[in-house]
Amino acid sequence: QVQLVESGGGLVQAGGSLRLSCAASGSIFSINTMGWYRQAPGKQRELVATITVGGTTNYADSVKGRFTISRVNAKKMLSLQMNSLKPEDTAVYFCNAVRYPVDWGQGTQVTVSS
Q: Which residues lie closer than 8 Å to 56 by C-beta, 6 or more apart?
């Protein structure tokens, strides 16, 4: 079984920064394009950023220029550096493989106050 564990969320003021981390068992980080997702209360889960095995990244327009996704395959770790946070970034953040997702983890809560 593959288990995804997200961490690093918390309460931060608008304009502040957080760094999220994602770890998992198995070889998921070495063989798949990985992504960060977020879901706010009453809204559908959305894809925020992706990174290929080779390191090519893509971002949703809403976070472009503010968030940076990265990966260290040897450590089975996926990260999301979040700068210039806005209240609309408030959500539960999840990680997963994009094309071949596994069971979702619990996510980590990010709350941005105005």
A: none
Phi, psi of 49 (to 5 degrees): -155, 150
State both tokens at 36: 């960060």
| Gap between the Cα atoms of 59 and 33, Å rounded | 13
Cα radius of gyration (the chain): 13
Residue 58 phi, psi dihedral angles, 5° rounding? -140, 150
* C-alpha to C-alpha distances, 26 to 68, 77, 102, nearest whole angstrom: 24, 11, 11
Tens digit of each residue's pLDDT (9 = 90 or more) over 49-89: 999 999 999 999 999 999 999 998 788 899 999 999 999 99
φ/ψ (deg, to 5) at 64: -60, 130
Report pLDDT digits (tens) over 86-109: 999 999 999 999 999 999 999 999
